[in-house]
Design a protein that fits this description.
The structure holds two protein chains of two kinds. Helices cover 65% and strands 0% of the residues of chain A. By secondary structure, chain A is mainly α. Chain A has a single domain, classed as Ferritin, core subunit, four-helix bundle (Ferritin, Up-down Bundle), CATH 1.20.1260.10. The radius of gyration of chain A is 18 Å and the shape is globular. Chain B is α+β, with helices and mostly antiparallel strands. Chain B has a domain of 60 residues: Phenylacetic acid degradation B (Ubiquitin-like (UB roll), Roll). Chain B is built from two helices and three strands. Chain B has a three-stranded antiparallel beta sheet with strand order 2-1-3, covered by helices on one side. Chain B is flat. Classes of the chains: A mainly alpha, B alpha+beta. At the A-B interface, helix 2 and helix 6 of A face helix 1 of B.
């Protein structure tokens, strides 16, 4: 088994799985019927994408584990998603800010992954780009609406951006698996996405009359499996059915 | 903020090129752009459409059901207004 490729795929898929679970938490709890459905749609798009990644990872692992085993039955420290996506739905401003800060990265990443030498990854990226373009349009729109809205909505969005900013730098950290895959022409060099990322994010923030956080202190660890306290609670929801009724199927 | 609730919008979806837009339902949105995005998520997530129109409901002028008698009943006994007296060739469908 190509261990680096397997780890590399999990690095991509775990981000979408955990963010998809967060958005799925809003099912029936969104701020309005329309936004509820929109958030659930985003969640389903992400889950659709992770199925392709985990199926591919299961094939590479070749040890009898299925996509569900990989998605549902790992321990907290074995998830390698970035810290950003596991942050809770504190309020709708936080939910949209988290989505936006990830979407901008996600789209830039997929546009590069589409050029991968690995045809499976390239095909998944190609299929996902349209979905993620819409996610970015949706979340950017909400950043602008709330940022450039009322005094209260502006403050809430500014707070959300300030809170989550500290998790953005980790998106551009390279793991060992990343480096190995970049060398083989399979992986994306995330360090090269950084300038473009902050340029896009900053221009949306400016348009939204929000200030760009100045803090230079950034959190990291998710890519190494060291998570914030929020992931454990999320996983206990996500894994409940598989843990309680092993091998259950719908 | 004048009101707490977003205004209501009527949603029209064209399901295929060549067909007309049909009324699909209504939803709430703060403005036209949001109405389009909401309509996309609420009404076209199962591949129902290729084009969406949104119109704020207040711009629709509706006939009053109380006037149905004078508006519609006079047409009921005028069957000659239906083109049912022609012999149609079998090849012509959808008439």
């Amino acid at each position: 088994m190509n261990n680096n490729l397997y780890k590399y795929i999990l690095g991509i898929a775990d981000n979408s799985l955990i963010l998809g679970q967060r958005m799925g938490e809003l099912t029936g709890h969104g701020p309005s019927l329309e936004t509820d459905i929109a958030c659930t749609n985003i969640s389903l798009d992400l889950f659709g994408q992770v199925r392709s990644y985990y199926q591919y990872a299961a094939k590479i692992a070749g040890d009898g584990r299925t996509e569900d085993d990989i998605a549902m039955l790992r321990k907290e420290r074995e998830y390698v998603n970035v810290l950003l996506v596991e942050q809770p739905n504190t309020d709708f401003a936080h939910t949209m800010a988290r989505q936006f800060l990830f979407d901008v990265y996600h789209l830039l990443f997929l546009q590069e992954l589409e050029k991968s030498k690995d045809l499976n990854l390239s095909a998944i990226a190609k299929k996902s780009i349209k979905e993620v373009s819409y996610h970015q349009r949706f979340s950017s729109d909400w950043i602008k609406r709330l940022g450039d809205g009322t005094e209260e909505s502006h403050q809430k969005m500014q707070d959300a951006i300030d809170d989550l900013w500290t998790y953005t730098d980790e998106l551009f950290h390279q793991t060992e698996a990343d480096k190995a895959m970049v060398k083989e022409g399979i992986g994306v060099d995330v360090t090269k996405l950084k300038d473009n990322y902050y340029q896009i994010v900053n221009s949306v923030l400016e348009e939204s009359t929000l200030s760009i956080p100045k803090s230079k202190y950034f959190q990291k660890g998710g890519k190494q499996g060291i998570h914030t306290e929020h992931l454990g609670y999320l996983l206990s929801d996500l894994q409940y059915m598989q843990r309680t009724y092993p091998n259950m199927e719908w | 903020m004048g009101t707490k609730n977003w205004p209501l919008w009527e949603i029209f979806v064209r399901s295929k090129n060549g067909l007309e837009h049909r009324h699909f339902g209504s939803l709430h949105a703060a403005d036209a752009e949001m109405a389009l995005e909401n309509a996309r998520d609420v009404y076209t997530r199962r591949n129902e459409g290729v084009s969406i129109w949104v119109v704020e409901s207040k711009h629709i002028t509706a006939s009053n059901p109380e006037h149905n008698g004078e508006l519609f009943e006079p047409a009921q006994d005028k069957v000659y207004r239906h083109p049912t007296f022609y012999d149609l060739p079998d090849e012509v469908k959808h008439m």
